């Protein structure tokens, strides 16, 4: 298997280049679906059945499993969308520099898509029946919160024993065993306009009210416990000499434990339930929508299995936690043992210098294939 994958490295890179050179940002539906069409063809060539879940606004989602599969116990999740807008590829297409490959979405996560396909090819090469024990969800809107694909992921996680999520490994090669959950709120304050020089006493400043709310919200931060409340965007007012009649704040929430969600939701509602400035009104919209991925007992056991597989093939596998959200939170919340970061090693995701460590492609594909085999025994 190891020799086979090393021999296929150039072939893998060629497919990665093809995928990277398609603009497939979350809002570029035609590009996401073009990537999906290529992957669909590859899986069908391997004897897999592909069910396409059509979407009107965002990229289509796909459910994939072997034609002989019967109640597979492993779910794998990989997204086809990137964060980059249409036209990015024309400015900076795929290229290789030294031992790294660059391009929009090269490691987050088009290389992971290719790794998954070649892990299946490697298992087919040795005649392993484990390829009949996997179900794959490819989604087209992960980068914007898995709006359409979350219900699909949650539905197909039920009854599974293991979830392997194909986000890239961290820069040091670590797998991800914990992710923070969170959500977004918008606070809309309505005041009363007045001329700040002629009759300021007749005004009711929405900006002043919002300032109180920002201070109160930020007092909820508890970084030691993994609670983060950040008012990241504010806007309001019409001119410098007008008491502001409106103001809006966008709030980002992060949590490390599911129990923290109810506490924060209660506190935020309390803060926004009353005005400090008489005559202002407050509207609160949003929620904590993404559960955290916690390192529980079953996920820890799955990690140890992957680490044992790593030792067998000469690869030291470490694990870490990250503040970013991902689809692993959805599989974990359904009670399935979940490990994330099973893609190849890379870094600088979502930036102009996003890169893939090319030499990690065969070894991480080998690790994935052997893990699927081990979990199917």
From TrEMBL:
Keyword vocabulary terms for this entry: Hydrolase, Metal-binding
Pfam families the record matches: M20_dimer, Peptidase_M20
Coiled coil: none
InterPro entries for this protein: Bact_exopeptidase_dim_dom, Pept_M20_glutamate_carboxypep, Peptidase_M20, Peptidase_M20_dimer, Peptidase_M20A
Record CDD domains: M20_CPDG2
Span of domain Peptidase M20 dimerisation: 177-274
Organism domain of life: Bacteria
Protein name (Swiss-Prot/TrEMBL): M20 family metallopeptidase
Organism the protein comes from: Ureibacillus aquaedulcis
Organism lineage string: Bacteria, Bacillati, Bacillota, Bacilli, Bacillales
